[in-house]
Amino acid sequence: MPLPLIFRAATLDDRDALIALVTSAYRGEASRAGWTTEADLLDGPRIVPEVLEHELRRLRSVVLIAEREGTMLGCAQVCDEGGTGHFGMFAVDPRQQGAGIGDALLHECERIAGEDWRLPVMRMTVIDVRDELIAWYERRGYRRTGLKKPFPYGDARFGAPKREDLRFEVLEKSLSPQSAIPSLLPQVSR
User: What's the whole-model pTM score?
Assistant: First the structure.
């Protein structure tokens, strides 16, 4: 039986490892080992150092790392955007996908937003052609809002699109106590 996951808040010292993890989950051939790959949609970086550094310094924001025996297995960011939780920067090592790490990270980010920060809703954006990923979130209580946002074509921070039909779709989930599931996971140290 594997040891439990440990959650901790990322620091600037984790920058390079986080970039490598996020890139491995979404871009290039390594990403094809998992089901979250965007390799057929985008080339280039999934996150750039300057953006990550900004997010690590941001107030009311946590970049959460999931580790087991000191090995970084996943990460996600939860932040307060005007009184609404926002979930992003979600990545799990492609070789570890399907083992519950993503579920645990998502649940812990929801706990932080709902319990610690008392935010009523969690939102995220997903590339709208990622049907399998959207379905994964829907099975976890997220719903499509019908809101679409343009993909930032020409902004190198988001990579180089291989298609011209990409957009973001906004998903959301209520974090009200009636819809929340009590956390069975250790709380993140901040």
Answer: 0.87
Helix 49-57 and helix 15-26, axial crossing angle in degrees, nearest 10 = 120
Structural contact between residues 151 and 167, judged by C-beta atoms closer than 8 angstroms:
yes
Do the domain assignments include residue 189? no
Residue 180 lies in a domain: no
Q: Could you give the number of structural domains in the chain? A: 1
Each residue's pLDDT, cut to its tens digit, for the chain (190 residues) gives 678 899 999 999 999 999 999 988 877 677 676 676 776 787 777 888 999 999 999 999 999 999 999 999 999 999 999 999 999 999 999 999 989 999 999 999 999 999 999 999 999 999 999 999 999 999 999 999 999 999 988 887 788 888 899 999 999 999 986 444 444 444 454 4
Ramachandran assignment for 70, one of left (phi > 0), alpha (psi -120 to 50 degrees), beta (any other): left
Nearest to 97 by CA among 43, 69, 136, 62: 136
